[in-house]
Amino acid sequence: MPVDYARRALDYDAVRADDATDRGFWLRGLVEVGSIQPGERVLDLGAGTGRFASLLHASNPVVALDSSREMLAIAHAKAPLACVRADGHRLPLRADAIDVTVIVMVLQHLHNYELVLREVARVSHRVVIATTDLFTRTTGIIEEAFPSLMEIDRIRFPRTEALVAALERSGFGNIRTEERAYLRKLTVTQQLDRKYLSTFDLLPPGEFDEGVRFLERELPRRFGDRFEMKSSFTFLGGTR
To answer: In 10 A of CB 142, how many CB atoms?
Structure first.
């Protein structure tokens, strides 16, 4: 079942975005692993509210592509981006129109991510992907609160080795894979206010509310007023 982002658009940035983290972790990883140079044409596939498209726009011409009209409206309000509402399985772009495509935490939403990668290879010379391999990652107290979360996401997220193979089959070479440590410090109140993952929309009935009650009880008891989120994400780059 797909996640409905239309109803999440207005409050999405409030619960997911953070300028310092977006710049210092996500954008830095994309630029470094993807070797993105100023002036290169960038496609942000699955751009959502334009968190990364708007940051890249300062130095690059960017096309923000997403299937949600509501999310793109917010993206366009952030910067004069070229916003395109389309399905990543059928990109409305000519061959070789793009220098580098960025794909940030999007693969789990795609019906056929390998088909999308073939489309990316058609229109783009390079690709850089940010994702996570949930067979090698744990989510700590979040996993305790929502027992079905990991089972659901291990189906949704491709394994790193499967993704590398799919990139190669799509025509990308010189695959670079880099695991980057992620550390974020929040007050417990901030963490409780930001409790949203797309997978929450896919949990069995009642599990989300029960999990929230668990976090409201256990976060202050275990962590006091300061919560540290320690994890890792995988960045992959490839050249056609």
So the answer is: 19
